[in-house]
Every structure is written in C-alpha cells, then in structure tokens.
C-alpha cells in the first residue's frame, strides 16, 4: 500500500468551476504531502499508452548496432537519442567529480531513448532511420503531442491551486520543451539488486516542473517517506492512472510548498519478501535464491518551463516575515543543464 492519493482528473477536464477547484485542492494536498499523485481519467487514450509500451519493447529489442544509429551525444547538454547500459548514472545533487566517479562504480542497469518537440532547436531529436523501425518516429511524435496536452491541463490545475492569475502557468511552457523518455530495465537477479552490485535507478529528484509516468506491472518504483528521510515506500502501478510528481523547478517556484520528492527504482516489494525468506532458510527462500526480476518498462514525460523563464517564488507562496523566499532565482534552462551535466561523463 502507498500514501500517494488517487485523484479523478476527469472532473477537472470536464467539470464545473467548483469541480475544477476541488480537484486542484486535492492535487495541492497530494503535492504538499508526498509530492506525487495518481490521476484517473487523465485524457490520454489507454490504447495509445499500450501501443507506446509495445513500440518501446520493439525499439529496445533491436540489435545494439541499430539502436546506435541514433546515439545520445557525449555529455548531458543534448539529451536526445539512445543511451546504452551504464552510460547514465542518476544522482541526487552530487556535483563533485570524485564523488560522481565513485557513484558510477555501481552503474544504473538500464537503457533509454529520449525525444522531444519537433521544433526544439536547443535539443533537436535524434531518430533511428525509418527503415530500422518503420512507424516508430511518427507514433512517438503523436504520443508526445498527446502527453503535452495533459501537461498543460495539469498546469492549469496547479495555477488554480497556487492562485496564479490568468493566464496561469501554461504560457510559461508554451515552447513545450519536454522530454519523452522510453526506459528499459533488463531482467536482473534479485541478489544483484539486493546486494547493490547493480542499481536500476539511484535515488534522485526530477529536475523540471512536473513529470508524467506510465509504468508497467513489474513494479520497483519507490518514493522516500517525507517524514522519514532514507525510508522508501513502494509506488506500485495502479491500473488506468498516470503517476504525476513535482520536480525541483516547481518546488522552487512554490517556495517549497510542494515537494520534489526523492524516488528510485530498485527491487520490487514482492521479491524483497522472498529474499527475507532466503535469509531465514525457509522453503520459499530456497526457491527464490536464483529469482530473476523480469524486464521493466516505463515511459516518463518530463516537463520544464521555457528556457528563459525565471524561476523564483510565485506571489502568494512567500511572505517577508512568516515565509521568506527560500531559493535564489534561476532560469529554467540554467538549472536543468546544471543537473543534466552530472548524469553523463563528458
């Protein structure tokens, strides 16, 4: 079980002003409490989500030399294309070169493919040739557009929650500088994850304003307990929902009102139970000693504001005497690039 609330977003998309205000309040409560919320009736077609997972499986099943026809450029400033196993290492606010190299000794056991808006000149897309996977590029562009619409609807809800005057936060994301990410975590031994010989994704917070996440049924996503740092709770997949979380920029914008919660992907809860049995030497544990966690696929979409947007505490989120500004102003692009630079060796 998890403390992440489930909210019916359909009432915001199709409801009255009163219903919109109620949904915005429910989301505000979720982001103040844990930084995550599950949205039902979010408007992204379920069949389209299912097709995206199928396209993801097809792409990652291609031979490595084919995937490398769309290579992620060196470093983190151009975050597009295919990244192979161990190339990226996620960390949480670690900038020292020595510490980063130490973290990379336990690589993230995953591969990914990033794409974005077709008119994003700062980070142009890098696609495999159409002949390598016919239909892949056109579908991903259509799916990106679908998720972009949901992001702007969520921004409208957040604007109501924070009482941002019209036209709200949506115009600050008008250039749709978002990132659609396909993630594949290959099958891995339970012991490798349990003994931290490898990791799937290390503990981290997201950089941007908000993240949409569709995940398969394998599980493994965990969110840090806001009241007990270092203690993580499972964020299991919930059928028919998209998981939405606040990123660092939105946390700064709200002056810390909303949490950019640390999360990670590791050993799913059901395998941890088997592993405990192994330690106790019972029959279930003996059967689970060579247990394999199956392949996991997830599809996050990371939203960030237009590059030159100045992120500083919004009016109503701070007070000179009782709640002063907690963060220095920063441009959206400057902050994201600072965080991205730590992910890849240059």
TrEMBL record:
Signal peptide: none annotated. Pfam families: 2OG-FeII_Oxy (PF03171), DIOX_N (PF14226). The keyword Iron applies. Residues 176-305 form the Fe2OG dioxygenase domain. Transmembrane segments: none annotated. One of its GO terms (biological process) is small molecule biosynthetic process. GO terms for molecular function: metal ion binding; oxidoreductase activity. The keyword Metal-binding applies. Keywords: Iron, Metal-binding, Oxidoreductase. PROSITE patterns: FE2OG_OXY. Belongs to the iron/ascorbate-dependent oxidoreductase family. This is Clavaminate synthase-like protein. The lineage of its organism: Eukaryota, Fungi, Dikarya, Ascomycota, Pezizomycotina.
